[in-house]
Amino acid sequence: MSILTPFFPKEAEMKGMTLDMSGLTFSMFAVVVVITSPFMGFLVSLVNPKNIIVGALFLSGLCNIGFGFFANIQSLDYFTLACFTTRIFEGIAASANSVAIFTILASVFPDRIGGIMEFDASPSTVGLLLSLLSIAYAISSPIWGKIVDLVGTETTWKLIVVGLFGSSIGIVLLGPTPYLNIPNQIWMKAVALIVFGLSSALALLPTFKSMLDYAIADGFRDNESTSGIISGLWTSVYSLGEIIGPIGGAALDENFGFSICSTVVAGLHLLMGVVLFIFFANSRKSPKKYHEMLLPMKVT
Hints:
Blueprint: H1 4-14, H2 19-43, H3 49-69, H4 76-108, H5 123-151, H6 153-174, H7 186-217, H8 224-256, H9 258-282, H10 287-299
């Protein structure tokens, strides 16, 4: 996504593709993940998950290489067909890779899957259950993206706050936290993962657009270079979280158990939501002022 974001919308526009069709091209990936993930849960019981991961990575790599050649396609119809087909195969690869990885984790680290294995579920069932997060994220992403485009920059931060609060609720249910009377049953785990998937999508999706809009409002040029810088920065910080998260989470889980670990993580989400709300609600450089600055730029 980080590779496609800087150049694809402008390249698609040069080919004559409408913005709606361009957005649908991105969304097709998520649609395929939603449709194929349940089938991948059954596939891992028939095929070695390691082989699935290798095949999925190979397919994903071919798709990324393919996008590099699409600039040479002159026909809009063929360009659209190529993009849609490639995104479909990328979605299949991502779905297979995600479910297979979760299945392996459930087999190798049965005591580190948040207590799900205590229900005597099979590894393939655990992999399918954990993929609910990805499915919920994939279903809601196009919807949240459309809402972000409609509400404008001055309201985007409010969506992020709501997403952070919702993520906190999902993680509390997943634990479940020992401080509330929440049933520790497998159906509750499923609900928690769905809530967290929906909310995390809402918390994450608006961030890139907000960073890009604020950068342009502060004087950066509205071009591929700026999009690339913001995309790289966003991906870097996201990856930093993927480094710190597992290390910190493993330490908390090892010493205090998953319920306390999830409670701490939920508290961090809640704290971040509160800090973000206070910052933007009292910021001298409010999103509204940024929005007013962006309006004439968009007109020209």
